[in-house]
Specification:
The protein has helices at residues 10-29, 41-55, 62-77, 83-99, 102-127, 132-213, 217-245, 263-272, 288-308, 346-357; strands at residues 276-280, 313-320, 324-332, 361-367, 370-378. The protein folds into 2 domains: 10-169, no CATH class; 260-385, Heat Shock Protein 90 (2-Layer Sandwich), CATH 3.30.565.10. Helix 1 packs antiparallel against helix 4, helix 2 runs parallel beside helix 4 and helix 3 (62-77) runs antiparallel to helix 4. With 385 residues, it is an alpha+beta fold. It is rod-shaped, with a radius of gyration of 43 Å. It contains 10 helices and 5 strands. The chain has a 5-stranded mixed beta sheet with strand order 1-2-3-5-4, with helices on one face. The chain is 64% helix and 10% strand.
Length: 385
Amino acid sequence: MSVTLPRPHRFDVRIAVAGLLGGVAMWALGLYTSGSGVLSSTWGLISLAVMAALELLRRTRPQFALAAGSLALAFDMVTTGNAATILMYTDLAYAAALYGSPAAARRVPVATGLACIAVTLGFLIWWRSPQALFVGLGAAVVSFGPAATGALVRNHRDAAEAARLRAEQTALLAELDRTQAVTAERARVARELHDLVAGHLSAIAIHSTAALSVDDPSTSREALGVIRENSVDGLAEMRRLIGILRDGSGDHEPAPAPTLDGLEALADSARDNGLDVHLDAMHGPLPAPVELAAYRIVQESLTNALKHASPGPVRVSLARRDHCVDIVVTSPYGSRATPRAPGSGAGLVGMRERASLLGGAFTAGPEGAVWAVRATLPLTEGDPR
């Protein structure tokens, strides 16, 4: 089974070629370092060639290159020595800390520092002279200095990469927040638009059908009056909503949020449209979000009763408990073959969303002979239901 080594980086190839050619040129000119000279200068070409070959691995196998380079440098020390070999070794020490594993980036400076101390102590014992300190200093310049520099550069590079990732994550979170805010605002506007206009349009549809199907001038005139009233009210509500959406236009004052004090007027409007509404509402102020949600749920329930309910009483009940408000709206169910006006189901979705946003509960469905809408709205977020 053959092992394929990764292709060396082009910059590493240039370093290897330049180091090899420079070392050969120094050897040819007789430029040597202060090696021991135990072996002739020709033997130094071996360590030079090995060091140049290891430069090809400085980025892909940095720890192996440093370990093998240390052996090649030790061999070079017993020859006349070559400056190019020493310079390439310093680059291997630098690359081992910069391109090695995170653990290697921490270990290489420590290992080279300990090696320099060991070399200094060894020559002090051997020579018994302060001159041995210069040997340790040279070893530090060749190994510890480049390794520490590589570790420092790596730390800066990692810090810059971490900052870049944090900036990308912050931008991503900001975009997600913006998208969620836009989606929530669209849902809120859709609920408000549906609750403001659906009731008026349903009344218009029902009374226009009655005016077209009954050949009675008085009935038609009465239906047209209801149609006109709902058209004017719906147009006014639409204009107020558009005024709110126009940022800074100054053309429209925002309409005050409806409260439970307006339920009686809402019931009277439903009675004018033909519903037999019986209202049993609590009195007293509630938190503004709860009042708005309760009003809209009752409003949409009456709209649905106008479109779908069979003839009979529509009962609206609001009762306050210690930590919540209970809303119940019932209407006759079961005997009408087709609805008086078409529906899309958005009303039930909107009521459920309003209750959910407050941490409340919502149900709607048939209960025997009636259709019941039940909602429980906590007065404070997180209150038990």
